[in-house]
Amino acid sequence: MVLKVFLCALLAICVTHIVALDLSQSQWIWTDTNELVPIYVSRDFRRDFTSPAGKIALDSEILIVADNNFTLYVNGEFIGQTFTEVESAFIFKYCVQLNPDYNVFAVTVENLPYTENPPGPTAPSPAAFRSAIQITYTDGSSDIIMTDTNWRANNVIPGFQSIHYNDSSWPYAVISPPGPIGGWFYTLQNQPDVSGVSLAGLNDPSYWIWTDEIPPQQPSSNAPIGSRAFRKRIEVPGGSVARSGVIIIDSDNAYVLYINGNLIGSGSDWQVAQRWKFTLDYPTDDIVIAVNATNSGGPAGLIVAIGFDAADCNCTTTRFAISDGTWKANHTVPAGFEQVDYDDCDWTPVVVEGAYGVAPWGQVTVQNAN
């Protein structure tokens, strides 16, 4: 960590000449020249890069867009993914720390049904992805990798994302036939920043959750009266760290919210969600959201959406998370449950009641709380 801080300080002095990254020189690529691909077909892509002699790689800025879903890895580590056709119109940005001399960028791309006609929801449709990767060195210089015919492409292969995987037998990717809108089939836009966080979500909406004292997918079920504890740990991938963000939260009936042990705020009207801005005590790759939620009778629920800035030296991007089935819950509110190092391994998974907008809560008002 001391070395990384030193390198970041050095880089801050040297990178003033690095230009903004964009996709203008990159190509849409796929595994063959067929314009139409069967739905739910996935393909794997790899690109390795060796630092030039005398250069030490520090970090990377990655822009990526896919038709339709992508899963991105760097040196075998999961970095990010998309889930819906809606996201095919967004250029996503990631900041990833690199190895000094050799790095591998790996992507799985899945084709989804094209919801508009033609060709229709079950017919084959165009598929491809596009990326630009800026690699920054410790001396402040940089190189840029684009999607082109230097990438390797193949059918889905287990373990393909490993830095040690041998892709020498893979064929090279091909340039995809252009589409009608700026060379493809979507009008591309950058992903939202933290101001774009919402309960409706960019891809999946946030979900109302509660303890396993109520049945799943039955949001109108009555829950026991009293307070319950909820926790969600978010690990920031790629060597980036978080410092600040925005969180939207609502609870039926009341909540007290903590992030990394610090009290953020509280609310007691389920018809009005609150939007809180927060700043962490120190940059970290480990964010813990903890909520003391109280039900005063009838149905009970908790819903959350969070966006935060993740940075690695000279690169900053926005990451999002929601309340869903990955959260944990406790039937009590243990002392110290809000602390980052609290052990919640024996807590139970939450029950998912339904997506944002489900009855009895419907669409709620969101107000700024600070």
UniProtKB/TrEMBL annotation:
Protein's UniProt name: Uncharacterized protein
Natural source organism: Amanita muscaria (strain Koide BX008)
Signal among keywords: yes
UniProt keyword annotations, A-Z: Signal
Highest taxon of the lineage: Eukaryota
InterPro entries for the chain: Galactose-bd-like_sf (IPR008979)
Signal sequence extent: 1-20
